[in-house]
Design goal:
Blueprint (H helix, E strand, L loop, with lengths): L2 E5 L6 E5 L3 H5 L8 H7 L1 E10 L1 H8 L7 H12 L8 E10 L4 E6 L8 E4 L5 E4 L2 H7 L8 H8 L13 E3 L4 E6 L2 E6 L14 H19 L6 E5 L4 H13 L4 E8 L9 H11 L4 E4 L24 H13 L4 E3 L4 H5 L4 H10 L6 H7 L3 H16 L38 H12 L2 H14 L5 E3 L5 H9 L2 H4 L6 H6 L6 H4 L8 H10 L1 H9 L2 H4 L5 H12 L10 H15 L1
Parallel strand pairs: 11-12, 11-14, 12-13, 14-15
Antiparallel strand pairs: 1-2, 1-7, 3-4, 4-5, 5-9, 6-7, 6-8, 9-10
Helix pairs in contact: 3-4, 6-25, 7-17, 12-14
């Protein structure tokens, strides 16, 4: 699934090719199939992903409701021009070649579920693709590894704009790109900070509005022509909410929930809650024995699927994908994004905003905390204000692990992108904005990895929580409603009656630290050999002595400052070995 789109310097015409499933090949390339459009408007369109709320969009564009995504994109572009992404919802990336203006226009969805990469060389050659590997292989002579980017990936920092290769860039989420006359312009089209605060009478009205939008997201995400689909279902609130809502709304489909089981590492195990939820929903979980699929399994010989230097439980995820494919499914739902959307912000930030805006009755809550006035001012106003709103550049650089010998800072702000706009001075709303928008990089990283893994199985991962309309609703909701205790109190109230009370009241979230160590211990010799002889050490990114010290401390159960970021360096090195070998 995806596309490649190249603009050559020879005749300034696109040489475009599609890769992927048979249904894309049958459609040839976008609107070439629709000769009337091609002749009349001279458009060539490549599309990857899924458009949501299509019936509503087709009505606005005066199209049949069964119109394909390329037709919808074409009419949207002809109607709204370069502003067309503002009217689109879903997980998508697309590229349009306009023969009349001799320009390429491309855009990526608001939440960044579908990636898009591009390269612009001095010889007037331009290419854009959903496949990073395609660009890296096609332009191999000018796309060596980017050492500073690899250093960034090695500590777990993911930036949609940066790739591991020189000269290849990523289009940021919620951005569009225009290329013509050898000039490249990038613009941000999604501006979630402009979403106005919604006003309802009470909390129940907000919950009802949330459920309406969440239901719409579930219905759009489970859309498939198959009679069954899969759903990942741990014992946590996010994945069980997605599974429960899907079961409630999707009576015509068979749902197979996939759940993890730890037989020995009981501190990681949630199988009891998974089974409880399955019984409540009349669904039988398909169990995956996690201890048979440890992290870094066979790392010396494994070949990471991901086009980016990040991977996770590949053998475990592949087992789920193999089983779903055998059963005829092509959609797998997840609870990814639930934490970012539903956690809210810290209570001290809420109090800080109330004090900053003159609501001095909040001082009563400070008194309950037993803080002195000076400490209160620091803890509830100065500290959250500085941490969430800085009109001036940060003077202090972030502290990085002692084993990182090469600084990743020079790649922090690619010059291709416009300066970010300042958002609302409300520090409580700003905190939620950063949680959803900027801190969502980890969610996008996981989504891209999972889809890379699923493409060979002709399966699509979908993430109903990570939805544009849902994100805009959360940003418009008063922060104090989202931040009440216990955590995710808003979601717990919304799901009452749809999930068992034991899950709604459970606030314990198992940490997988012992499972990660389980895999590291099993592959310790292979990991040491991989890193010692690896590219990161040879290139001066990793200090091998400091790295081995942290590795030994982790294996011995000692407390370390690293917090496990060294695992990302192992992933990067394994990825490099595959690409170099």
């Amino acid at each position: 699934m995806g596309f490649q789109f190249c603009l050559s310097n020879k005749d300034n015409r696109p040489n475009a090719r599609l890769r992927g499933f048979e249904r894309y090949e049958k459609k040839s390339f976008g609107l070439i199939q629709y000769s009337r459009f091609h002749k009349e408007h001279h458009l060539l369109i490549a599309f990857d992903g899924r458009l949501d709320h299509r019936a509503e969009l087709c009505t606005r564009l005066h199209l049949p409701v069964d119109s394909g995504p390329e037709v919808i994109i074409a009419h949207a572009y002809l109607t709204w021009g370069n502003a067309c992404p503002n009217y689109l919802n879903g997980d998508f990336s697309f590229t349009i070649w306009n023969e009349k203006t001799r320009q390429i226009f491309a855009a990526r969805d608001a939440m960044g579920i579908r990636p898009l990469y591009f390269i612009h060389l001095d010889n007037r050659e331009f290419a854009i693709s959903t496949s990073l590997d395609f660009l890296a292989q096609t332009f191999a002579q000018c796309c060596n590894f980017n050492i500073q980017a690899l250093a960034k990936f090695s500590i777990g920092e993911y930036d949609d704009r940066i790739t591991p290769y020189k000269n290849i860039h990523g289009l940021d989420f919620g951005h569009s790109l225009t290329f013509g006359d050898d000039k490249l312009k990038i613009k941000r089209w999604w501006e979630p900070e402009q979403v106005p605060t919604s006003i309802h009478r009470n909390e129940q009205d907000y919950i009802e509005s949330f459920l309406e939008i969440f239901d719409q997201s579930i219905m759009e995400h489970y859309r498939t022509d198959r009679s069954m689909m899969g759903s990942t279902m741990s014992g946590g609130l996010d994945s069980t909410s997605v599974t429960a809502k899907t079961k409630h709304l999707c009576s015509d489909k068979t749902i197979i929930p996939y759940s993890y089981k730890f037989n020995k590492l009981t501190d990681c195990d949630e199988s009891g809650l998974s089974q409880l939820c399955g019984d409540f929903l009349d669904l039988q979980p398909r169990w995956v024995n996690c201890e048979e699929h440890w992290l870094f399994k066979n790392i010396a010989t494994a070949s990471p699927y991901s086009s980016l230097p990040f991977f996770s439980w590949e053998s475990l995820d592949r087992e789920i994908l193999c089983d779903l494919k055998k059963r005829g499914g092509n959609v797998l739902l997840t609870g990814h994004g639930g934490d970012s959307m539903m956690t809210g912000t810290l209570p001290e930030i809420i109090l800080g905003e109330r004090l900053r805006t003159g609501h001095f009755q909040a001082l009563k809550q400070l008194k309950k905390k037993g803080f002195s006035p000076i400490r209160s001012l620091y803890h509830y106003i100065y500290k959250p204000f500085v941490s969430t709103y800085r009109p001036w550049p940060k003077s202090k650089q972030k502290k990085h692990p002692i084993w990182l010998a090469s600084s990743p800072f020079p790649t922090d702000k690619p010059s291709l992108y416009p300066e970010s706009r300042q958002i609302s001075r409300r520090i409580d709303r700003q905190s939620i904005y950063h949680m959803i928008v900027h801190n969502g990089s980890g969610i996008r990283r996981a989504c891209h990895y999972l889809q890379n893994l699923a493409d060979p199985f002709a399966i699509e991962y979908r993430h109903p929580f990570y939805d544009r309309k849902l994100a805009e609703f959360i940003l418009a909701t008063p922060p104090e409603l989202l931040s009440r205790q216990p955590p995710k109190s808003f979601l717990r109230k919304a799901m009452r009656g749809l999930l068992p009370e034991e899950i709604l009241s459970n606030t314990h979230k198992p940490l997988l630290h012992s499972f990660y160590l389980f895999g590291i211990k099993k592959e310790l010799r292979a990991i040491r050999d991989l890193m010692k002889k690896g590219y990161l050490v040879a290139s001066g990114v990793v200090d091998i002595q400091a790295f081995n010290k942290i590795l030994n401390q982790a294996v011995n159960g000692e407390s370390i400052e690293d917090r496990g970021s060294f695992m990302y360096a192992i992933m990067v090195e394994a990825w490099i070995r595959k690409r170099s070998g």
